[in-house]
Amino acid sequence: MATARSALVVDDERDIRELLVLTLGRMGLRVDTAADLASARAQLAQGRYDLCLTDMRLPDGSGQELIEHIAQRYAETPVAMITAYGNVEAAVSALKAGAFDFVTKPVDLAVLRRLVQHALELNEQRKSAPASARLLGDSQRMQQLRQTINRVARSQAPVYISGESGVGKELVARLIHEQGSRAGGPFVPVNCGAIPSDLMESELFGHKKGSFTGAHADKEGLFQAAQGGTLFLDEVAELPLHMQVKLLRVIQEKSVRPVGAQAELPVDVRILSATHKNLAKLVEDGKFRQDLYYRINVIELAVPPLRQRREDIPLIAEAILKRLAGEQADGLPALSEEAEAALSAYPFPGNVRELENILERAVALCDGQTIEVADLYLPQVDQLIGQEADMPLRPLAAAPSPALPAGADGTALPEAIEQMERETIQKALEANRYNKTKTAAALGITFRALRYKLKKLGME
Length: 460
Known about the structure:
Layout: E1 6-10, H1 14-26, E2 30-34, H2 37-46, E3 51-55, E4 57-58, E5 61-62, H3 63-73, E6 79-84, H4 88-97, E7 101-105, H5 109-128, H6 140-152, E8 159-162, H7 169-178, E9 187-191, H8 200-205, E10 206-207, E11 219-220, H9 222-225, E12 230-234, H10 241-253, E13 255-256, E14 265-266, E15 270-275, H11 279-284, H12 290-296, E16 299-302, H13 313-325, E17 334-335, H14 337-345, H15 351-365, E18 370-371, H16 373-376, H17 413-431, H18 436-443, H19 447-456
Parallel strand pairs: 1-2, 1-3, 3-6, 6-7, 8-15, 8-16, 9-12, 12-15, 17-18
Antiparallel strand pairs: 4-5, 10-11, 13-14
Helix pairs in contact: 2-3, 3-4, 13-15, 15-19, 17-18, 18-19
């Protein structure tokens, strides 16, 4: 017979304790109670709990102290804070201390049940979820990052993921989602910089039919699409100020008002956000609202750039090459020792995304099964060897390039060359009846190089 899951309720008000015992009991939980901090610590020492609910104010201390105590000694036990209505500062402090979530008084039983359900699912998700092989790297920085992801996944607090372009901020957001209690719900990523300003409110919150020109039917917004799951706001710094105000209200009220609607709709969504920009500096410059910054930045998670974990480059490169090998008919090319050293010395301003692009190009253009330094087309690698990993990235010195001459029809030389390549390849394909192996031989290039050029020129 399965052991009943258990909860500890800590509150000095008998009425609240009885209400929570009744509600949790109906959900199939065995419930213990404590009226003060000392009793709660004693109860925790006697047995393991699947959930703890604690009031903010206790006769001999505070719920904050209990949250910190649980985080240090019983890290596998999710704990939620019960706060007075409108006491946002206490809720934020609780989340930063390691609380799973919070609920306000008077307690809304529907909200409480959802919170409890998330907490109970959390440990199950953590037990069943395998360690992700996608966030590669054995460096100390990456080990710390994975540990932090594991911790913040337990919470429902908003997480702000900072880092340069190409470091894998969306991957980190997906891992937080997958390792948390919302893994069974949707993960909805949205690039805030890719949505036109005049359509942003409709995209995020939805709209009603006839609310504006072109609104021919009701439309669900991205917040509603992420119901019960996670909404990832990528490049959140690109939000215009008027949308920052609306987003702040949604986070505070946990409800959205579709464009043209009279009433708000409740939403149960965890917010993760990211940007490659310095959000704190944008707040100082008045380009990002300070109140929204503190709301989405309850927990900050910094993803290190590739140049600060150079020892991970060979492992990541090997994984990328294995993936590319699945797309090639002629096997897996390998990096020469010199090419691997060159990659390890390169600062990668575009981070992992740039490494992927470099290797994809090298696989396509290299002759044989070995990728040499020349196949990588890295700029001035010899100047980069020995550069300190933590030094700020500086633009590479480059020789001044002359102005490109124009083609016969007035187009720039790169476009003219591309057009010539396209025409030459097209004629060769037709002459060889679209046999790519024969076409590559006729053109004097490798089969991989032909596939790369077909993809680049949009001729696939």
